[in-house]
Each structure stands twice: as C-alpha cells, then as structure tokens.
Amino acid sequence: MKKQLVICLSMAVMPCYTQAETAHEEFMATLYINQIDQKTDLLIIKKDQQWLTACQDLANTFLDLQALTKVTVAGQSYCMLNTAPITAEFNDAQQSLQMHVPPSFMQNSEQKNNHPNLAAASAPFGGYLNYDALYKKISQQQSYNEFGLKNDLSLFKDNLLFKNSTLLHHSNKANETQDQFTRLFTQFSLEQPNHLTTLQIGDSISPSSPVSRGVYFAGLQYGTSFMQRPGFVYWNIPSIVGSALTPSTVDLYINGIKNYSTKVNPGEFNIQSGALFNGDGKGQMIIEDVLGNKTVQDFDLSVTDQLLRKGLQDYNISAGRLRYNFDEDSNDYRDYFTSVYFRTGLTDTLNLGFSANYLKDLQNFGAFSSQYVPHLGMITLGAAYSHANSANGQKFNLGISKNASYFNLGFNTEYNSEHFKTMGMDDSQNLPKFDHLLYAGLNQIPFIGHLTFNYVEQSQYKKSNLSDKRIFSLRGGKALFSSLYFNYGLSYENQSKDKLLFDLAFSYQFDNKHSAYLSKNNSALYAAINKTDLALTGFDYSASVGKNHESTIFNTDTTLKKSFGDLNLRYSNNQDAYQAQADFQGAFVFLDHSIGLTKSIEYPFALVRLSNQENIDIYKNNEFVGKTNKKGELFVHRLIAYANHDISYDQNQLPIEYETPILNRNLVPYDLRGYVVDLPIIRSFDLSFKLTDFQGAAIPAGSMISYAQNPDHSVPVGSQGIVTIYGLKESTQYTFTVKTGPEQHCTFSYLTAAFNNNNTLIPATCR
C-alpha cells in the first residue's frame, strides 16, 4: 500500500483531502440519530458515496455495532453509516451528520420486574415467648370450666430459627378433673435466602398438591420458600415488548388504569413490568418519545399467579415419621415415610409437576399440569396411582377456571377409586367417589351489585357409612349509599335440618371504626353494633342481641389492646345457658441485652430505641405506629418478611438543643425475627466560663476561643474573661485554645457531664 500524505489547511468545518490510490474526504461533524443530538463529534470519511467512521467512536451511542457493516481502512475497523436501511445526510449549515436508524440496528434493552429479591438484614441473637392464657366457664344442665395455657418459644440468630410450642389444659366437668400437657411441635429451620430455600428439622407439614395432601410429620424437610416472600414475583408478570427510535417513556394501562411507567433507550425493548394484576384484561401501551410523538398499541392481557414463570422450579423433599393426634399426644409418631414434590414452569402458560410418597404399606405417585388457554382460562389436570394393602387405586381430577374484570367462573371435578389411598388416611377411611364444585361470580351488575353462585356435590361409596352431600348457595350484595350496604343469600343443603335457608342483612358504616349490622334468616333476627380499630392499642367491642326460635340471645365481645398484650372478654347468654370467657395474649421478649413485655409476635418486629426520649411519635413507612415509653423504646410489630421498611420518628417533637444525625433507618427483616433499630439523638448545651491566665488575671476581651471538635467555629471572649460556648455534647473531653494575640495563645480542658445543666460560671485557667 502506498503511503498517504494528509494535509489539513483549516479547522474541522472544511473538508480534508488525502493522496492515495483512491481519494476520499474527511469531516468533523456532530452526530444526530433520529433527530436527537448524540453530543458526540466524529471524524467522518466520505468514500465512494459511503459515510464511514471509526467503530470505536460509536461505543457511547445506542447503535448496535455488531449489526453495522464494517470495512477496514488503514488497518482500523470502520463502520458504514448509510448502508440500507440506514440513511445518512450531511448538513453543511450545522456541520452535522443526520442518521436515520431503524430500531433493529440499536441495542436491545431489557428490564426486570420492579419487585427485587431484597437481602434480609442480619438479625441479632434474641428470642420471645408468646403466651395465650384462656379461661372458659359454661353453664348448661351441668356447669364446667376450662383453663388453657399455650406457650410458643422462639430463638433466633440471623437465618437460624428454633421454635417450640406446648399446651397445658385443665378442665373440671361433673366433678371430674382432667389435666393434660402436650408438646405441639418442635422445629429448627435454616433459611438460605440467596437460594430461596429453607431446611427444617423437627415437626413440619409436607406440601400438598392437586393429587396429594399434606401430612404432619417429624423429620427433615428441604425445599423452596419463595412463595412466602411478598416481594418475589414467581408468576408470569406482564411484559412490554416494542421498539423506539429515540429515548422514550412507556406507559402500561390495564383495563383503563395506569399500572406501570418507565423510560427506555432507542431500540427494541422487553420490559417485565411487575404490574400487580391477576386475570384477563385489556392492555394498552403508550410510547411517547422526547419529541412528543405518541404511538398507542392495544392488546389482550392474561396474568395468573397460579402458574410459575418460565424456568422457575418449586420443589420439596420430606422424610421422617408421620405424626398423629398432635394436639393430644406429644409423641404419637408412627410410619416412616419419604415424600417428593416438584413443579416447574415449562413455559409462561404451562406448568408440569409430580408428587411421590413412599411408606412401607402405602405408595402413591401423581402427576399434574396447569395450562392457560387464551380466552378460555386455566385448565388443570391431575392423575394419581396408589398401592396399599395389596390393592391398587386411582385418582383423576379436572379443573377449568377463568377470571376477568367483571366475572369469574370455574368448575372442578374429582374421581377417587374405592381403594385409592393417600398419606394420613386410616385403613377404614375412604375418599368421596365423586367430588364436584361449580362456582360463578359477577361484579358491577347494574341495580344488583355483585352476585356469586356455588354448588358442591359429593358422592360416597356405600361402605363409607357417609351420606351423599349436595350444597347450593346464591349470594349477592350492593352498596345502596356510600355507607349503607345490603346483602342477601339463599342456600340449600340436603343434610341440613332446615334444607332451604335464606338471609337478608343490612350494614351501616358510621366511619372507619364504627358500624351497625342487622340480619334476618329463616328462624333468627340479629342486631349488632361494632367498633374495630386497626391500631395496635385501643379498645374494640361488639354487642349483639337476637331471637332464634323462642330463645333470646345476648352476646358481648370486648378487646382491650395494650402495648404489652391484648385482653379479650366474651359473654353469651340465652334462656337456657350462658358462657363466659377471658383470654389474654402477649409475649415476653429478650433482645440485645434488653427484656420487655409486648404483644404476641406473629410477624417480624423491631425494637426502636430513641436515646431515652419519651412520647416521641414513631412511624413505619410514614404510618404512625405509637409513642416511645419512658426508656425511649417502642416495639414495632407486623413487619413483612423480605420487604423494605422505613422506620422514622418526628424530630419536631424534640427540644431545640437536640441534634438528630440519623432521622430514619431502612430494615429488610427475616421472618419471625426481631431487630434493634437505634436512632441516636445527641443532646447539645452551652457552658459559660470565666477565664484567667496562670497569674489569675482575666483573659483580655476580644480573644478568640476554638476547639478541635469544631475548628472552624471561634467565639470571642467578653469582658472580665467571660465566654459562652454553644453546641457542646454530653460526656465529651474538650481542649479549648484561646488566641490572645497574633503570636500568643493558651489552652484549657474540660470534661462535660452526662446531663449537664450547669448554669453558673465555670472558672478555668488557661495555660
């Protein structure tokens, strides 16, 4: 190749010519793609009507470099900028290259759903003891009373959790006393949040499936746990697929309601929206680019949380001994067994799975599938085989369901052969031969409101000594006014004494706490007033009076909710008998060297500490929770596992001399663990000193005093050597420097007290 000589006689706005085998022009130009300035200046070569530039100079654009045609010039890779279907024009006035690029030549963008798998915070060692004390007295022909005490002990550290539950029961009936102590369950669990799995050792329940049911057992269990995570989206969430020529905003509407919005780069995009929607509906995607142009795309949408998304597996392996009568016997362990459950999302609309159980005298295996068919709904199929006591059995089921905006309907039928058995069944027990369920529901019906219909039919084998069952119900309701609701129902059961029943009911909501209720059915008339508050502390009550046949019935139910527990009192009286009951539920907690009494713990919780500040409002996700006690502490209950919580307080309630370096903390908890949330508050104050030198003479007025903790802040000394220093902290050693002249200074030290309320002059000698 001949050597080239390039001579440029002007700046970038003028063409530059080269001498070689084939002459070409070179330009410096600003790059525009689809009318959008890329904020990039390129050296562009025009050769044989082709526009070229070094591929490496396009790295910061949205172009897909792999899709562009490339040539080699002087050993360097150049990309062709006007190869069909891409076009390019040079604008002499703007000294710019205007490219028109279709989306297929731009980088694809993909966004995952907006429900991330949050990592749980490390939990300190701690524990709690839930207790439930119940006393009941019943007076009928013979009076008797009962007392029960249920204790649930939990110990935790990080992802480890130990639980043990016991029940003590005492009864006195007809002068006969019975006492019973039962261990309900003992379990140790280890969560593996990165793998979305949990290992359990001890008492557990095996998973159920369309072809088998869960059983209570003791042993080992390992399996996935993402179903218990509210932030983990395991189903086929709506995806937005499209393309954009320029940076754009994409909005997703479902049934006319905006569910999702995001920004996309130029090119083709595939976004998992994470929209919280379940059922069939109409979707609409609106794309608006930076130039204000809009495009609208309508489509049908189907989402169901009954299906795992493609590629996701749900599995469980259990092994141990079956447990019977666990509420009465602490150690009724019998047959050894092994159980396997597996389900996978083969596609976004098809799931396949199986379950297998093995005992010495019983083995069964079943397979099932769930398929979503557009416009038809969800179709589930299941088949199972069992071998028990030298007899074989079969099970088949079929289900069809569809959920839409204004209606839902479904049908399920199940057949069990006479000898089909599953784990947990007694030898003499039989499943129904046929079990049918039909349901339908309509919403937003003019003048009617909503209407639901259910029909259940069970056919038994003759040797089961059970009667066939048929149940029919029709229910509906409508809001007559903003606070007045009307409900009605009609039901039929062939085994009931009153086979055909009807009921009418009116309810009135005075506000978000108080309501009244009136109902009438075949034989009874009831009226009730209620107060229910979602707050963790307060007083709830319900009182009702009614007439059933010839008896008048009176009921009261009151609950006193305090920070240390809830007391529930119930009383029921009719002409022949009465029943009284008292129930107290609470918890004893020990956490991070602190102990305390609080409500029963059923969710993750946090102990908020606010540096001994009493009566300060605490908030969870900007919702008021309660006020701190005398120690500046408050238990925050009902946290959600693996979800983010913002714990904060009202800093405006603090005196002005307090500083608040941390106003809130974010917390993502493990399930059933406790956390300590420290929100430090620093108390500042001022001190006045009377300064003298080592000879006892007052420090001259106008001298400047400073200290290392705040070197940029200096305070002048007043007359008679008196100075007041503001913003000092408790229990802190300060060394003050006093500058008395251009080259003269002295120092003195002072240790502030834990609670300094010294309003007198403090003598200090500056040396």
Topology:
Elements (H helix, E strand, L loop, with lengths): L4 E2 L9 E4 L5 E9 L2 E12 L2 E5 L15 E4 L2 E5 L6 E5 L4 E5 L8 E3 L14 E14 L4 E14 L2 E14 L2 E17 L4 E9 L10 E9 L14 E6 L3 E7 L2 E8 L2 E6 L6 E11 L4 E10 L9 E11 L9 E13 L4 E10 L2 E12 L3 E12 L2 E13 L3 E10 L17 E12 L3 E11 L9 E11 L4 E10 L6 E10 L4 E8 L2 E8 L6 E11 L2 E12 L2 E9 L4 E14 L2 E5 L6 E5 L7 E4 L2 E5 L5 E4 L8 E5 L8 E2 L4 E4 L6 E5 L3 E11 L11 E4 L2 E7 L5 E8 L3 E9 L2 E8 L10 E4 L2
Parallel strand pairs: 3-9, 10-20, 42-49, 50-56
Antiparallel strand pairs: 1-2, 2-3, 3-4, 4-5, 5-7, 6-7, 8-9, 11-12, 11-40, 12-13, 13-14, 14-15, 15-16, 16-23, 17-20, 18-19, 18-21, 21-22, 23-24, 24-25, 25-26, 26-27, 27-28, 28-29, 29-30, 30-31, 31-32, 32-33, 33-34, 34-35, 35-36, 36-37, 37-38, 38-39, 39-40, 40-41, 42-45, 43-44, 43-46, 46-48, ...
